[in-house]
Design goal:
Layout lengths: L3 E6 L4 H17 L9 E5 L2 E6 L2 H17 L7 E3 L3 E3 L2 E8 L5 H14 L5 E5 L2 E6 L2 H13 L7 E3 L3
Helix pairs in contact: 1-2
Length: 162
């Protein structure tokens, strides 16, 4: 019998992220409490740039964006946000969307699988994802439950389940 396997990845649907940003932009333009605050949110290359005339307004725009991400099914673990920075008359917050699993996190996941998972399960780091293999599909499902329960600071998806 061939081994069963699945991949552990951390990916973001870019179209959904773009839709969330556009919805947040529309809401910021239309809401009464943002009138006259020069509040805006936009893509700046790969980063997301939030601007407003006060720190509280900038944080409020970020909050609107985060709520839109959640509604679109994107985990906030994928959003890396900096602190508000004063620049002239405006405050800016730069945020990025994290994709891929870093080597450090991949090693941590591998250690969790080795220490707490079923003994027949093997994990292997492949670039920015992990491949998990076992003869038993039940063991693979146990690993998925284990990783969902673990408090990792990265959003994990399980793909290529064979």
């Amino acid at each position: 019998m061939a081994d069963s396997s699945f991949d552990i990845v951390s990916k973001i649907d870019r179209q959904e992220a773009d839709n969330a940003l556009n919805q947040a932009r529309k809401e910021v333009e239309q809401r009464y409490d943002f009138k006259g605050t020069d509040a805006s949110i936009e893509w700046s290359g790969e980063a997301i740039l939030i601007k407003a005339n006060s720190e509280e307004r900038a944080k409020a725009v970020l909050d609107v964006f985060q709520s839109k991400l959640i509604k679109r099914g994107i985990s906030l673990k994928s959003l890396e946000t900096g602190d508000p920075v004063a620049g002239g008359k405006e405050y800016r917050i730069t945020s990025t969307l994290k994709e891929g699993i870093s080597q450090e996190i991949a090693k941590k996941i591998g250690k969790i699988i080795r220490d707490e998972g079923p003994k027949s399960v093997k994990s292997q780091i492949q670039g920015d994802e992990l491949r998990v293999q076992s003869k038993s599909r039940d063991d693979l499902q146990e690993v998925q439950r284990l990783l969902k329960a673990a408090d990792l600071d990265v959003d994990l998806q399980f793909t290529n389940y064979r």
